[in-house]
Amino acid sequence: MSARARTVALVVTLVAQLGLAGCSRSLRASASGRVVANGDSSEPLRVVYLGSGGWILEHAGAVVLTGPLFTNPGLLKTGLLGIRSDTVVVDRFMARYDVASALAILVGHAHYDHLMDVPRVAVRHAPTARIVGSRTVANTLGTWSGLADRMDVIDDMAGDQVTVGQWVRYGEHVRVMALRSRHAPHFEGFTLYAGTRTVPLHEEPAGANDWLDGETYAFLVDFMSGADSVAFRVYYQDAVAAPPAGFAPEALVAERGVDVALIVPATFDQVSWHPEGIIENLAPRRVILGHWEDFFSPIDEPALSLRYSDLRHFERRLERVFDGEWWRPERGTELLLR
């Protein structure tokens, strides 16, 4: 069987397992519109869910983005045909938000659903933001994207459960630490589009299987209220990882806890102890679920979820170990957290 045929077979099996047809839109934890969480009168953290792995994080005027996907190529294109960013769609959705001052765009791995729309967002909508990711992310964007001089490669700076990594400062009020993670299998031990890229590309990747995942990272994002005072600490992952991959340094969390954890339910059943492990590690005050929806359907259509039973299973497991506030936002939901 050819590599292309294997890719098609894997994608078809993945979609069948996720149950993207006929799934529920009325999950108990669903949030939409604007959500204002209770708290003190301090400056709120604004969190906007863009869909897939995309978020806008903003505090006191400091903005950080994570890699969004608006193009949503269909299953047939993803499996058989070429795909590329739909810049018209990207512009239409990103025009709803003023992110011109964004300091950084965090990319946890280089699969197309996390990286393909980043060049357009970076060039048109966040023109001074640094692109933060792995060497594979940098080499995938290569020379064709025009972003080579805006890359911050964090392979040698990342921390883990026992090692405090290097903070990278963005402006006066944001610092970011990468955390070594892994990409969980999509199903039955298979991870789609796995591999690293060691040489910069000079042309845009042609198909989904050209967007290799590379090294995978989660991130801690601190929004600072002074030189050494953390106003909000955010944890962000864009792929499920088998514990302890993706864990934050225990010593760091012991000194200053995580205010909100952005975690992923998709493919949670392919690893053990998720979300239990990451909740135990982070002890977050609040949890928001991202990358939960079908990204094969057009972005204009209502978002479909994993099978209701699968997502409810994840929710029940979350509730057994976490008794704080948590949400599963629809695309475009804005949360104000104090």
Summed up, what is this model?
The protein has 338 residues and is α/β, with parallel strands linked by helices. 22% of the residues lie in helices and 23% in strands. The protein has a single domain, classed as 4-Layer Sandwich (Metallo-beta-lactamase, Chain A).
Task: Explain the overall architecture.
Strand 9 and strand 10 (about 175-180) form a beta hairpin. This protein has nine helices and 16 strands. The chain starts with a helix and ends with a strand. It is of the alpha/beta class and about 350 residues long. The chain is globular and about 50 Å long. It has helices at about 5-20, 75-80, 85-95, 110-115, 120-125, 135-140, 250-255, 275-280, 310-320; strands at about 30, 35, 45-50, 55-60, 60-65, 105, 130-135, 150-155, 170, 175-180, 215-225, 230-235, 260-265, 285-290, 325-330, 335. It has one domain: Ribonuclease Z/Hydroxyacylglutathione hydrolase-like (Metallo-beta-lactamase, Chain A), CATH 3.60.15.10.
Would you tell me which CATH topology applies? Metallo-beta-lactamase, Chain A
Task: Count up the helices.
Answer: 9
Main sheet record: 8 strands, mixed
Strand order of the largest sheet: 1-15-14-13-12-11-10-9
